[in-house]
Specification:
With 87 residues, this protein is an all-alpha fold. The protein has 4 helices and no strands. It has 2 domains: 39 residues, no CATH class; 31 residues. The protein is rod-shaped, with a radius of gyration of 33 Å.
């Protein structure tokens, strides 16, 4: 309706005038128009940026293996063994 042209003045009615006559806030007009524009099916989310050299599963396995190896080198058992070797 806001884009409709007046037959007498040959000018568009405009959003402000239409909302005032319909007694609707302009924010509701724009929200409804935005909802009408987004009725298309959403595009599934994809990973952005360049493709990684290693898959996520392989990277997670490598991180877990490194954490296990690190905990054996720097954990409490390692410190106890180090202290036992010193005495």
């Amino acid at each position: 309706m806001a884009a409709t042209t007046s037959p007498t003045s040959a000018r568009r009615y405009g959003v402000a005038r239409v909302c005032r006559i319909w007694d609707v806030p302009r924010s509701s007009f724009y929200a409804d128009r935005r909802r009408a524009d987004t009725t298309t099916t959403p595009v599934p989310a994809q990973r952005r940026g360049p493709k990684p050299r290693v898959s996520d599963d392989a990277l997670l396995a490598a991180i877990r293996a490194e954490r296990v190896a690190e905990s054996l080198r720097f954990g409490l058992a390692f410190r106890r063994g180090e202290l036992a070797r010193r005495t």
